[in-house]
Design a protein that fits this description.
Blueprint lengths: L2 H7 L1 H8 L18 E6 L7 H13 L12 E5 L7 H4 L19 E3 L2 E5 L22 H13 L14 E6 L5 H9 L4 E6 L3 H16 L4 E6 L4 E2 L6 E2 L6 H9 L4 E4 L4 H9 L9 H30 L3
Parallel strand pairs: 1-5, 1-6, 2-4, 2-5, 6-7, 7-10
Antiparallel strand pairs: 3-4, 8-9
Helix pairs in contact: 2-5, 3-10, 5-6
Length: 319
């Protein structure tokens, strides 16, 4: 049975549960089907550049082979942006069929490029035959959003068709803001870290302050912050150009709030193009792309590898 129909049939049960979230005693737990490290990526960029970053970091983690494991890290991505899911586009899965269910009724993630993902975008009905799912709008109030978040958290079986060993890391893409999705997740599951992605603009930095405050109120540890689109390398030089302002304000905020800065990433055309094409930039190794992106592409890749290494080291320290 398609997963979308399963969610509709479960709406009454989850609606009744969601009525008691604000007053019930909070009991945090992991996904009953798998207990990986859970890393949140709330995106307070002023555009959608942060979503490609999340996918690329997930692949960077998945390509690591730490000595402690003796194998590659098993990574999954959960897109909890209910109203604006971007995972189908970023993973090249706009035309994917609806997720299937296991015999026990759990939802199976959809895999592309070797990485399992789950998103509300896979469950939306098409507005009309032949039209993309992107045209379907989610028009829900808070209780329905809480219901969807709970189902995506607890009813997805990440164990490679129900038979594998499960994930090591679950990367969660969060919508901007401090609303229902963030609070529901922070209250219901054990989160191992939040990585806050921002751009240099003042409007984004104000959201970063509010986000850090929110996560601390719900006892979610903050792994660090990342400054996206920090600067740009023109093709004819190696001098960074700060198109959106100096990074000094970002670093000052991180210092004042005692949050580590994990890295700065330059603005690279190929990252955005890869997201539109459904092929993460970290997987693209063509000489043409490297020549087009120049020094910025090389700096971006090195920074991404360093950030992935820092994130995994932090997670290992939680054992």
């Amino acid at each position: 049975m398609p997963a979308a129909k399963h969610i509709q049939q479960s709406s009454l049960r989850l609606f009744l549960l969601s009525r008691h979230i604000s007053t019930a005693h909070v009991v945090r737990h992991g996904n009953p089907l798998v207990r990986p490290y859970i890393v949140l990526f709330p995106d307070w960029d002023t555009d959608l550049y942060g979503h490609p970053f999340l996918v690329n970091l997930a692949f960077s983690l998945a390509m690591m082979k730490p000595q402690s494991l003796g194998r590659r890290i098993r990574v999954g991505v959960l897109d909890l942006d209910i109203f604006g899911p971007s995972m189908p586009t970023l993973m090249g899965l706009q035309n994917a069929d609806e997720p299937h269910l296991t015999s026990a009724g759990a939802i199976l993630p959809i895999t592309n490029h070797g990485l399992p993902t789950m998103s509300m975008g896979y469950l939306l009905p098409k507005s009309q035959p032949g039209s993309p799912r992107e045209d379907a709008a989610v028009v829900w109030r808070g209780l329905m959003v809480q219901k969807a978040v709970q189902q995506l958290l607890f009813d997805v079986d990440w164990r490679d068709g129900g038979k594998g060993p499960g994930l090591d890391v679950l990367v969660v893409d969060m919508p901007p803001g401090t609303g229902d999705v963030q609070l529901t997740l922070g209250q219901l599951v054990v989160v191992d870290g939040a990585i806050i992605v921002s751009t240099p603009q003042d409007v984004a930095l104000a959201d970063v302050r509010r986000g850090i405050s929110m996560f601390r109120k719900v006892s979610v540890p903050i792994t660090g912050t990342i400054l996206n689109q920090s600067y740009f390398f023109c093709p004819s030089c190696t001098t960074p150009h700060y198109l959106f302002g100096s990074p000094a304000a970002f670093h000052n905020i991180a210092t004042s709030l005692d949050v580590p800065v994990l890295g700065e990433l330059p603005l690279v055309k190929g990252v955005s193009a890869g997201g539109d094409d459904g092929v993460p930039y970290i997987l693209i190794a063509s000489k043409e792309q490297a020549k087009e992106d120049g020094a910025g592409g090389a700096v971006w890749r090195n920074a991404m590898e360093e950030i992935a290494g820092t994130v995994w080291k932090t997670l290992e320290g939680k054992q």
